[in-house]
Amino acid sequence: MSQIFLMDKGERVTIFNDRGEPLAERVPLESLSPYRNRAMREILHTLKRTAVIDINKLENSLKKGSVGNTMAIGAECRILGREVDLPIMEHINSIADRVHEMLRVSDDDDTRVEILDSLLIVQIPSIVVATGTGYTQAHLLPATALAYAIIEEFDLGIFDGVDMIKAALLGRYPQTIDPSGGAVSTLISFPTKVEGAAVGYRTLSVNTIVALTGRRTFDAVALSSILEHAAAFESGAAMGPYRRFHLLGMAYQGFNAENMVYELVRDHGKGTVIDIIEDVVHRALNDGVIKVERRLPSGYEIYTPVDASLWNAYASAGLLAATIQNAGASRSAQGAPSAMQFYSDLLAMATSLPGVDFGRAFGTATLFEWLTHNSYGGGEVGIFSGEHVVTKGSKGFVIPCAAAAMCLDAGTQMYMPEVTSKNMFKLREVLPVFKDPLSRIAEAANEYGG
């Protein structure tokens, strides 16, 4: 059985865009590894060194004396008599220069401090990221530098509210397990808030991914696929024979390898999930990915994989196509978990083969469906992340589908990207790595093995 997982160094794929046009032709599968692909590494590195500071929130928190909240809504601690009224926005240029000066290690390093409307976008130097043990520096260093910059800018003394500045930036931390509630945020969740190791890249919410990619469906799929599979590489889930399993899954579902997702949606956009399943099985048979093992007296055919990893890649492309078909027809993301659930169930019944991610996508979709709109109505598709207890079961194959569905949603959700992740739309303006990620990945793949 292990033979059907093994990596073939000569294996190549062609990546297509969302118009069915080739972006990278016959590139080595290995060129799509996060260890080999320059564009992927740039995206992942950006996540680990970027902080977003909401200056309006900081200024208003200080002015009202409302700091240290521990819940999402209505839990601010308003401390009467401790208000600090500072015109931070009026001095933002000078403050930004001070922050930059404190953070930089050398004159020619890649420290960045950008003013974007009322946001301060801070990227700590790469040498600092490399020196640290983790990515908490992206949260703590900009917050500390900004606190010192404000103190210096306004010549504040120990009794002038400097303690309130810390609370407005970092909330109650370290009294709480993470610095939530403050004006500083990072793209990756603070590690003490995350359940388990090596899942940091999976902490971006679906809505954040959608916002960072400007609601472009295939770009959101590509970015979420990078994050999900990079976490698999980091955790050891992509070790040994499963390296090829994850690379093929990422290529076919995440990067539209061989134009499969595009063609499935194009050919069956007005059809049903069954049409997509029949097409996937037909392709797999014709391409020698699966074969009929035996035929029962009833006429039912039991299939067996010739190449289990490639079968998973084909099936995962179909899973995404089925989700796009459903969300695109209704212009609503709400049915995405159900589409994933029933695609997986019907595919298994049609072939007797394990579904996407050896059935884990099916199990994940079942719980996802229940928690988004069945027995429990407190969650919506866009607010989940790959690290969430509901969606963490399948490593790599469910979140890209959810991201695609939210891109196609026409405003039916209460928690839209424009509500939960509005600042991420702005972030694209100063962080070009999130623009056209699919094209960038294809270009880097060409560089590696063109």
Note down, in words, how this protein is organized.
This protein is an alpha+beta fold and 450 residues long. It has two domains: 2-32 and 200-449, Methyl-coenzyme M reductase, alpha/beta subunit, C-terminal (Methyl-coenzyme M Reductase, Chain B, domain 2), CATH 1.20.840; 50-186, Alpha-Beta Plaits, CATH 3.30.70. The protein is 48% helix and 10% strand. The protein contains 18 helices and ten strands. The chain has helices at residues 38-49, 55-64, 92-103, 126-131, 137-153, 162-170, 206-212, 217-235, 242-254, 260-268, 273-286, 308-330, 336-351, 360-373, 399-408, 417-420, 422-427, 437-449; strands at 12-16, 22-28, 50-54, 66-67, 77-78, 112-116, 119-123, 184-186, 290-295, 301-305. The strands form four sheets. Strands 6-7-3-8 form a four-stranded antiparallel β-sheet. Strand 1 (12-16) and strand 2 (22-28) form a beta hairpin. Helix 8 (217-235) runs antiparallel to helix 9 (242-254), helix 8 (217-235) runs antiparallel to helix 15 and helix 11 (273-286) packs antiparallel against helix 12 (308-330). The longest helix has 23 residues, at 308-330. The protein is elongated. The two termini are 32 Å apart. The model has no long low-confidence stretch (mean pLDDT 93).
